[in-house]
Amino acid sequence: MSLLTLRILILQLLAERDLAGSVIFSLFGPGLTGNVVRERAEAMFYELDQDGSGGLTADELQDWFSSVGATLTDSAVADLMKGNVEDPERGIQLSEFQQLVYIVYQIKS
């Protein structure tokens, strides 16, 4: 892989992460307290957990982002999960999802 190709892939990944954050922020809106963000993240978590396993898989996240018009590559979703999941086999747990959404919300506001 050339250096140029690697740079393009990194830029694409960064743009997709920014898009993911923008989607979350646009759904919640500005000016919310931390508790409200966490409450809304909890409601969103249970909506996204399609199989009721108590953990969000990469596929469930990918499906959700696609449903709101944000097409993310598998590598972008994997990157979102990689830094935020204690046990990848179980997926993102509720507390991990709430923390991720809260951090994204704070960065975007």
Please characterize this protein's 3D structure.
There is one protein chain. The chain is an all-alpha fold and 109 residues long. It has one domain (3-108): Orthogonal Bundle (Recoverin, domain 1). Helices cover 69% and strands 0% of the residues. The protein contains five helices and no strands. The chain has helices at residues 3-28, 34-48, 58-67, 74-82, 94-108. The longest helix is centred in the first third of the chain and has 26 residues, at 3-28. The model has no long low-confidence stretch (mean pLDDT 78).
General form: globular
Overall residue-averaged pLDDT value: 78
Main structural class? mainly alpha
Beta strand count: 0
The fraction of residues assigned to DSSP E strands is: under 5%
Q: Give unreliable regions as ranges.
A: none
Give short descriptive properties of this protein:
109 residues; Recoverin, domain 1; globular
Write the layout of secondary structure elements.
Layout: H1 3-28, H2 34-48, H3 58-67, H4 74-82, H5 94-108
Question: Brief description of this entry?
Answer:
This protein is mainly alpha-helical.
